[in-house]
Write a structure and sequence with these properties.
The complex is a heterodimer of chains A (356) and B (397).
Chain A (H helix, E strand, L loop, with lengths): L4 E8 L35 H6 L2 H17 L6 E5 L5 H13 L7 H7 L3 H10 L4 E5 L5 H15 L4 E8 L3 H9 L26 E8 L8 E10 L4 H14 L9 E4 L5 H14 L5 E3 L1 H4 L6 H14 L7 E3 L8 E8 L3 E9 L2
Parallel strand pairs in A: 2-3, 2-4, 7-8, 7-10
Antiparallel strand pairs in A: 1-5, 1-6, 4-5, 6-11, 8-9, 10-11
Chain B lengths: L4 E10 L5 H9 L28 H8 L7 H17 L9 E6 L5 H13 L14 H12 L4 E5 L5 H14 L5 E8 L3 H9 L23 E9 H4 L6 E10 L12 H14 L8 E3 L6 H15 L5 E3 L2 H4 L6 H15 L31 E7 L4 E8 L2
Parallel strand pairs in B: 2-3, 2-4, 7-8, 7-9
Antiparallel strand pairs in B: 1-5, 1-6, 4-5, 6-10, 9-10
Helix pairs in contact in B: 2-3, 3-5, 6-12, 9-10
Classes of the chains: A alpha/beta (356), B alpha/beta (397).
């Protein structure tokens, strides 16, 4: 089977992930229930006139995509595959609000045009002048994972050499209001480094974009291969998750012993973190474990941040203190298993291997 | 990986019929589905004709076996997906590794837009039940859960090409041995959000649309759902498949967020790529189901790209949107089913209301229904916002 290399990564998040340097060198600590991205200077990639018209999700997508291509030294990918659960929420909200308030009269097209879920993928293609395959997955907690799976399958069949794949979601005033009413978030602000020990229900809201330039040959700066990707939809019970992980490891020719570091999607919601405990106890009782959602917040494509972090850990061969959840990372980190779930219904596994 | 992927069946619900048989009957009898809005509530009710599915939500919910307060997009989706499955002869769904890949453009927006009126007045108000299925993926899951599909569930949203891209992804999932069967296509119901959006773009015709006609002035929106059942070689051997999905390509026009490039670059690349993948010469295509929205811009770009590839041997072609309206995320799925039937039964669909030759093009669409034609290979085009262009090729054995 062909190896799929991660030749470049780009991430825009609530941490200073767009500036390079050692992983999480300047940790941003928050004491709030919703995190917004730390925005880089978008002028480096986008014309000033266009920036003004673009919503945040489009900007963060274009930014993360460009960071990833630059890191890989690729100017033109063969395909662009985007994952976003919510799509362009801000423009959707703007158009809906005007439509309701103005009783369907005197509306303008800009917000509608930018509200479609493929706006980000389309804008990246437009700015790069990329005529290649372009697809957008919009499946909740599997949106990002599907973009990786599609990219992997395409690279293996040889229909592209370099594929830009990523996931992103934005948090808006409306989405935060409405999702809060569903009881997703904590009632009180919580400190970044205390979230994962929180004894209550609910998590913190987040947003962000992570893109990866994937290819079948390694580049100069390549440190990791995307060895496996798998999703599990609505498992009936914990045993099914555990069985799925065992099968996934087996399919990728390894056992729990081969995993040097577990990266989990713990989000500080006691109900939702329960399954991580079950999995750790059953399969990885003594394994060092890192986590990431206290750093970026919870959103359906947050696994993108997790994968960006895992790639960075393989590059540095060290885990930042702020990300360490249990135990101590070994000196030599070869394989990282990222296990994430979104709202208990969407479970995903991403296996990364160190490339010397 | 030389395994082929077959079409084992299909299902459609649209403005011209509640199932595939009814839809085919409407083409045969030249009965397009557009008219005044009966079910969507909008101030534009008397301005823009639409091709609505001729049933209220209570009736659709009854057909689908779902509660009637569920998004109409999910109701349409489940009805067509069930029909597709039943037509495949696959029987008990739990016996297979099944995937459901569905395209849609605005998820449960039909309910969200009702919610929003109350919510905007007071953000503590509005029934949450109406937004719980706002996400595109949530609509797909209602259907997957109702059908008992768990091995793979995903949703694609690339505007008007969503349904076509779902078939490509389904094909890959089978070839990579992730599942054995995929129900692939798309769904969308009419919403005020989309109607008003297209109205701001000034591409809605106030009359029934006239695709590929010199006098065309825009599209009519429609609604519906369409799915094919894709199966692997080994399963196809036990069934009587309609045809196979022999080629496809997805390209980006990279020209403008909503408009097509004047020379139809993306359209050309999609059609060319699909032909290359299926190993066909242009003259082997017997019929093209056009994207053919009826807007000035789309039809000329698509036509110029077709001219570039097919001249001087033009296959029969038509826009079935002249009957179903533009069903957006569903259109790629609906037209995939129609194209697969076209290969199976040699059907060339009529293009309604074509009278005036487009001056830019040397060919004209078919205007009459015919069946029993010898069609070995049929192409289906789906082009959309964001520059997303996709073409599929269906071939007989």
């Amino acid at each position: 089977m062909l190896t799929i290399y991660i030749n470049g990564t780009g991430c825009i998040s609530a941490q200073e992930t767009a500036t390079g340097g050692p992983l999480l060198a300047n940790l941003r600590e928050y004491d709030q229930v919703k995190l917004a991205t730390v925005d880089p200077d978008y002028k480096q990639w986008i014309d000033v006139k266009q920036i003004r018209r673009m919503s945040r999700v489009v900007k963060m997508g274009v930014g993360a995509a460009n960071l990833s291509l630059q890191a890989a030294g690729i100017t033109m990918p063969g395909a662009i595959i985007t994952g976003t659960a919510y799509g362009c929420l801000d423009d959707t909200g703007v158009f809906l609000t005007k439509m309701v308030n103005q009783q369907e009269e005197m509306l303008t097209p800009t917000a509608f045009i930018q509200s479609t879920h493929n706006t980000v993928g389309g804008q990246i293609a437009l700015l790069l002048g990329c005529n290649g395959y372009n697809n957008t997955f919009v499946h909740r907690g599997f949106s990002f994972e599907n973009s990786l799976l599609d990219a992997t399958m395409m690279l293996r069949e040889g229909s592209a050499q370099h594929i830009l794949a990523g996931g992103l979601d934005e948090l808006t005033q409306h989405s935060y209001q409405i999702l809060s009413r569903f009881g997703l978030y904590k009632k009180e602000p919580v400190k970044t480094l205390e979230l994962l020990k929180s004894p209550t229900r609910g998590t913190i809201a987040g947003e962000g974009a992570a893109f990866f330039t994937l290819g079948t040959t390694p580049g100069e700066n390549t440190v990791a291969a995307l060895t496996g990707i798998s999703t599990l939809y609505k498992p009936m019970w914990e045993g099914e998750v555990i069985g799925h992980i065992m099968k996934f490891l087996e399919d990728n020719a390894c056992t729990p012993n081969d995993i040097d570091l577990l990266v989990t999607g713990r989000n500080g919601d006691i109900d939702q973190d329960d399954i991580y405990e079950e999995v750790v106890e059953a399969l990885f009782p003594e394994h060092p474990e890192a986590s990431f959602k206290h750093l970026c917040g919870e959103y359906p494509t947050a696994a993108g941040f997790g994968m960006w972090l895992a790639n960075g850990i393989l590059a540095d061969q060290a885990v930042p203190d702020a990300a360490m959840f249990y135990g101590k990372a070994p000196r030599n980190i070869k394989k990282i298993l990222l296990y994430n779930h979104h709202q208990g219904t969407h479970h995903s596994l991403i296996l990364l291997s160190h490339v010397e | 990986m030389s395994e082929k992927v077959w079409i084992a069946g299909g299902g459609v619900i649209s403005g011209i019929g509640l199932n595939l048989r009814e839809c085919l009957g409407a083409f045969r009898e030249m009965k397009p589905g557009m008219g005044a809005m009966q079910y969507l509530s909008s101030v534009h009710r008397n301005t823009f004709p639409v091709a609505e599915v001729k049933a209220d939500n209570t009736t659709l919910a009854d057909m689908a076996g779902l509660p009637e307060n569920i998004s109409r997009t999910a109701l349409l989706s489940l009805i067509a997906a069930k029909e597709a499955w039943q037509s495949s002869g696959l029987d008990d769904i739990s016996r297979y590794r099944v995937g459901f890949v569905s395209g849609n453009t605005v998820g449960g927006m039909d309910k969200t837009e009702d919610f929003f009126a109350e919510y905007l007045a007071d953000n503590r108000k509005g029934r949450l039940q109406q937004v719980v299925h706002h996400e595109c993926g949530s609509v797909t899951e209602i259907v997957a859960d109702a059908m008992g599909i768990r091995h793979h569930v995903s949703t694609i949203s690339t505007a008007c090409s969503s349904g076509a891209n779902a078939l490509m992804y389904g094909y890959r999932l089978i070839r990579n041995n992730i599942v054995d069967v995929v129900i692939a296509g798309g769904t969308d119901s009419l919403t005020r959000f989309t109607l008003n959006g297209f109205n701001t773009l000034m591409i809605l015709d106030q009359q029934p649309c006239r695709p590929f006609d010199e006098t065309r002035t825009g599209l009519n929106l429609g609604e519906g759902a369409g799915y094919v059942v894709l199966v692997s070689d080994s399963l196809a051997a036990q069934l009587q498949p309609w045809c196979r999905l022999s080629g496809f390509a997805n390209a980006n026009d990279a020209y403008h967020q909503t408009a097509s490039s004047p020379d139809g670059t993306g359209n050309y690349l999609a059609m060319k790529g699909a032909l290359d993948m299926s190993g066909l010469q242009p003259q082997q295509i017997g019929y093209i189901n056009l994207h053919g929205t009826g807007t000035g811009n789309n039809d000329v770009s698509e036509g110029i790209a077709i001219n570039r590839i097919f001249a001087p041997h033009f296959p029969a072609m038509s826009s079935t949107k002249s009957f179903t309206g533009h069903t957006l995320g569903a259109s790629g799925g609906i037209e995939a089913v129609l194209s697969a039937v076209s290969v199976k039964e040699g059907i060339i669909y009529p293009n309604a209301r074509f009278e005036h030759q487009m001056k830019e093009l040397p060919f004209a669409p078919a205007t009459a229904w015919s069946e029993g034609n010898d069609l070995r290979h049929v192409m289906s085009n789906s082009f959309g916002f964001g520059g997303n262009c996709s073409s599929l090729v269906f071939s007989s054995f």
